[in-house]
Design brief:
Layout (H helix, E strand, L loop, with lengths): L3 E6 L5 H9 L4 E7 L3 H11 L3 E3 L2 H5 L6 E4 L6 H10 L3 E4 L7 H14 L3 E3 L7 H11 L6 E9 L15 H4 L3 H5 L1 H11 L3 E9 L10 E8 L4 E7 L7 E7 L2 E6 L11 E5 L8 H6 L3 H6 L6 E4 L6 H13 L11 H20 L3 E2 L15
Parallel strand pairs: 1-2, 1-4, 2-3, 4-5, 5-6, 7-10
Antiparallel strand pairs: 7-11, 8-9, 8-15, 9-10, 11-12, 12-13, 13-14
The chain binds nicotinamide-adenine-dinucleotide.
Nicotinamide-adenine-dinucleotide binds next to loops.
């Protein structure tokens, strides 16, 4: 197959996920790694077999073999890097969060549209097998009409290393817990519910960790279709919670993405009042141990799923490569618009914190960006 040439911009921690992922695809090849830190770029290139290294984006974009760029730089650089790539005719898969402000994200989308190139947001969790299965179950009506959800993401602040420490510098990250962790969850809810946020009220706090940033975050949201839900995350506890629960009129879903803890016994559990014989075949084929559950005369409605672990980064970059060739993949990744919608929620949550009230969405372009301070 004709392989699309991919360049990775930024050779920090997340490059160690993207670079090997490219090599696992059938339709993309790793052409170059670019980082002003030549040593770091060289290490990633050597470890994952990139053909070339560059120390500036302009230099990498002069290479015609680089057809699309995965932007893996700190958040405050995303806008500039994505726009420079778009202007050079390159599509962009931009790591999350797409930007710091809503206006930056809108400007990135405009640049991509004007250049006629795809813009993707790095919400890799959409590609996990258990997420795909949960989406399928919802679409098939297995849990009925959705009215409520809860999503949590807890993790200790120093569990995760980065090369530049940008996460704990608010002007470089745009926030710590609210956007670094929870941004995956805003997208997950929008994706699974096929819905958008209508309003938000937030309580954002610094409680514990040495950097004075948001490490204790709680948000209540309402969606356009009328569901209510909460997002909660902290950066001081050990990883005990990494789950999304969705409640419908015919059942509920418990979905886990990363952490393995006694609280999360299975990656995906579905409870339904739909009779076993009426469940879609794809679910009954995937469930373990479904046969046993069926045999149980007291069918409880619970099904536990252990889908095979898949490399979400590889599927994500493969879909990006298809988009660069104008091909529609079977599973569409998060677009620039999806990145924008999550960014908007973060900015509205900041307004809610500062003004102590509910904030309605969507925000209009030009809404001033205000970041709360914590003491
Ligand atoms: N999808 C996920 O779950 C996930 C996980 C981790 C990080 N990320 C995202 O990836 C991005 C990077 O995070 P990280 O942890 O890898 O950061 P990091 O600090 O480890 O790496 C950033 C790299 O960018 C390089 N850089 C700085 N300026 C540059 C420039 N002008 N051109 C090219 N490279 C430059 C730095 O030298 C560094 O090597 C962030 O947006 C982060 O939110 C996403």
């Amino acid at each position: 197959m004709d392989k699309v040439g991919i360049g990775i911009l930024g050779a920090g921690s997340i490059a160690h996920y993207h670079a090997p992922a490219v090599g696992k695809t059938a339709n993309a090849r790793l052409v170059a790694i670019c980082d002003p830190d030549r040593k770091r770029a060289g290490q990633v290139a050597e470890q994952y077999g990139a053909e070339k290294i560059y120390t500036s984006l302009d230099e990498m974009l002069r290479d015609p073999a680089v057809e699309g760029v995965v932007v893996c730089t700190p958040n405050f650089m995303h806008r500039e890097h994505a726009e420079v790539c778009a202007k050079a005719g390159r599509g962009v898969l931009c790591e999350k969060p797409i930007s710091i402000t809503l206006d930056e994200a809108l400007s990135m989308q405009k640049a991509a549209d004007e250049a006629g190139v795809p813009l993707r947001t790095g919400f890799n969790q959409r590609f996990l097998n258990q997420v795909k299965l949960a989406k399928f179950a919802i679409e098939q009506g297995v849990i009925g009409e959705i009215h409520a959800f809860r999503s949590v993401f807890s993790g200790k602040w120093n569990n995760y290393f980065d090369e530049t420490n940008f996460r704990y510098l608010p002007e470089q990250s745009g926030g710590t817990t609210i956007n670094d962790n929870l941004v995956h969850r805003y997208d997950m809810i929008r994706h699974l519910l096929d819905d958008d946020f209508e309003s938000v009220v937030a309580d954002l706090h610094h409680s514990v960790i040495p950097p004075v940033v948001d490490d204790n975050v709680h948000m209540i949201v309402r969606t356009r279709k009328g569901a209510r839900g909460t997002f909660a995350a902290d950066r001081f506890s050990s990883v005990i919670a990494d789950s999304t629960d969705i409640y419908g009129t015919k059942g509920s879903i418990h979905l886990v993405t990363n952490a393995v803890s006694p609280f999360h016994a299975v990656p995906l559990a579905i409870n339904t009042t739909v009779a076993p014989e009426e469940l879609p075949k794809r679910l009954t084929g995937a469930v373990y141990p479904f046969a046993k559950a069926r045999a149980n005369p007291a069918w409880t409605g619970w099904m536990s799923f252990w889908p095979e672990f898949n490399d979400a980064y590889a599927e994500q970059v493969s879909e990006f490569a298809d988009a660069l060739r104008g091909r529609q993949a079977t599973h569409v990744g998060a677009t620039g618009i999806d990145g924008i919608r999550s960014q908007e929620l973060i900015q509205a949550a900041y307004d809610s914190q500062i003004d102590s009230c509910w904030i309605s969405l969507p925000l209009t372009q030009g809404t001033p960006y205000r970041m709360p301070s914590y003491s």
